[in-house]
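Posting this for the archive.
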Amino acid sequence: MPTKIRLQRRGKRGQPFYHIVIADGRAPRDGKFIEKIGTYNPLTRPADIDIDFKKAITWLDKGAQPTDTVKAILSYKGILYKSHLLKGVQKGAMTEEQAEIKFQAWLQEKEAKIAGKKKEFELSVKDVRKKLHENEIKLNEAKAQAVAKKRSEAAAAQQAASAPAIEVPAAPAEPVQAEEPTQE
C-alpha cells in the first residue's frame, strides 16, 4: 500500500484551506485518509502552515511520498532537512547534537528571512495605500474644480438671463464741419 502525504481541500469556493494528510495513493483527493498531520492556509501572507513535525518525519521515515506541493511545504518548514540530518545520524556521519545544532542554525536563518519578507510586505502595502490615498485626493480636487467651474458658468448664464436687457443708445455723432475753402 503506497502512502502519500498530500493536501486535502477544504473551505469555500474561492477560499481554499487544506489539511495535510497521510493517505493511500489510490484514494481520491478528498476521500479517506490514514492520519491528519497539519493544515495549510494559502490565503494569508505569508501562508499559514501548521504541521506536526514528529509525525511528518515518522511518515517520511516509513516511506510515505509527498506530492510536489507538500514537498515544498515540508521543505519550507525544514522537515525534509531535519529528516536528511537524522538519516546522517543513523549512518554515523554525525551525532544527534551536531545535527540539532545544524538544524537550529538553519531554523534561525529561515525565521529571519521570513520576518524580513513580512516586514517588506507590510511596507509595500503601506506604500500602495499611501499612493492610492494621494491619487484619490488629487482626483477629488480635480472633481471639485470641475464642479466649481460648472457652477460659476451656470451662475453667470443665469445672471445674464435674469438681468433686464438695457439698450444703450448710440452716442451722437459729432457734427462734421465743412471745410472752409482756403485762399491761396
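The radius of gyration is 40 Å. The first strand starts at residue 3 and ends at 10.
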